Amino acid sequence: ILDIMQTYDHENVILCQEKGLGVRAIIAIHDTTLGPAAGGMRMLPYASEQDAIDDALRLARGMTYKAAVAGVNHGGGKCIVIGDPRHDKNEALFCLLGRFIERLGGHYITGEDVGTNAFDMDIIGRETRYVFALPSGEEVSDFTAIGVMQGIRASLQQVYGSADLQGCSVAVQGIGSVGGKLVKRLIEAGAVVSIADIDQAAVEQVARDFPEVSVLPPQEVHTHPVDVYCPCALGAILSSRTIPELQCKIVCGAANNQLADEQCSDLLMQQGIVYAPDFVVNAGGLIAYADSYTPEGFQRQRALTNVERIYHTLESIFALSGQQSIATAHAADLIAEQRIAAMRQAKSAM
Ligand code: PHE
Asked: Using an 8 Å Cβ cutoff, are 284 and 146 in contact?
């Protein structure tokens, strides 16, 4: 672990263990230059502890870049809980996780992620102040979905010279909390939507709610000829194996860590596909959460305005990528690294 931490410059990795309840969790804090580390709590049945640690480290680092580009004053962190969210959740588990987080004294603030929801966060909130919460009636995944819509519009503008979704074909892979909300918004905007998910029951539900949606097999969704391929499931779906099979003009979706490795962004560029960097596009949830953490508290209109800025942020990333002939993911990295470096200098100067 120390080697990986050194390579990617993580500040802390905390392992949490409690035998009685069988809790095993990892909290990774990547960088707190811009502020306390923010990042969701992800609960999945990881095959091994090593897989869970790797995911925590990669996702925490992604959050640092996400916050830096989004203009949010937070660093990057993540909490990974090893377990099956369908069977292994209980009140005691989240109380305990809340106490682990409280002990970090505010260096890490948690929130919803894959496998956790607002109910779980309420329990955590009994034990710690360091958990993001939106006012009742607001869902964080809504803001993420609004941000992804902005990302899709900016990408369409870049490729076709029009940000109008009317008649555009979009394949949504993963119809969980963000993907599901996106399907609704895409249909409302006039897009022709196809979906895929390994959860058959979820697919049937969406197909009932929106009969106009077509259903694709999960293994083939990325090969479907569409304007926009929208990954909203788990990470690493863009690899040297899948990229040559893509038949889309744009990749723009909510999943974190879509690129299996760094070369993949160049592969996409060589294939003439516009890639909207995941951590730019999916920052809507973080932006809304950060808004709730201000002294005034959550202000819906301000949060929405900031989420909608994702459109313009992507425009500048596309412009930088064009000027310097670099992949869009590299352009986004540069913007993030510049902001962090400047703030680090400002802080050490005082
Ligand atoms: N899990 C979401 C993300 O990865 C939302 C989130 C942001 C959760 C910040 C906690 C903290 O962006």
From this structure: yes
Residues 68-83 have pLDDT tens digits of 999 999 999 999 999 9
Q: What does the DSSP assignment read for 169-233? A: EEEEE--SHHHHHHHHHHHHTT-EEEEE-S-HHHHHHHHHH-TT-EE--TTTGGGS-EEEEEE-S
* Separation of alpha carbons 315 and 17, rounded Å: 44
Report the pLDDT value the prediction gives residue 347, as an integer from 0 to 100: 86
Tell me the average pLDDT across 229-239.
92
pLDDT in tens, 294-310: 999 999 999 999 999 99
From residue 147, how far is each of 13, 166, 182, 216 by CA, in Å? Answer: 30, 18, 10, 25
Class (C level, CATH) for 140-283+311-336: alpha beta
Give me the catalytic one of 66, 78, 89, 181.
78
Amino acid at 326: I
pLDDT at 20: 87
Pairing of strands 23-31, 75-82: antiparallel
Q: Do the beta carbons of residue 38 and residue 251 sit within 8 Å?
A: no
* Residues forming beta bridges with residue 43, ordered by sequence position: 81
- Domain spans, the chain: 2-60+74-127, 140-283+311-336
Q: Is 105 exposed, middle or buried (0-12, 13-18, 19+ CB in 10 A)?
A: exposed
Please give the ipTM for the structure prediction: 0.96
Give the position, in ligand 1's atom list, of the atom nearest the Cα of 286.
Answer: 7
Q: How many angstroms does the Cα of residue 247 sit away from the middle of ligand 1? A: 30
CB-based pocket (< 6 A), ligand 1: 38-40, 111-113, 132, 140, 256, 282, 285-286, 289
Cβ atoms within 10 Å, residue 162: 11
- 299 three-class SS: coil
pLDDT of residue 349: 83
Quick one: tokens of 133? 């919460």
CATH number of 2-60+74-127: 3.40.50.10860
pLDDT, residue 220, reads 93
pLDDT value at residue 112 = 95
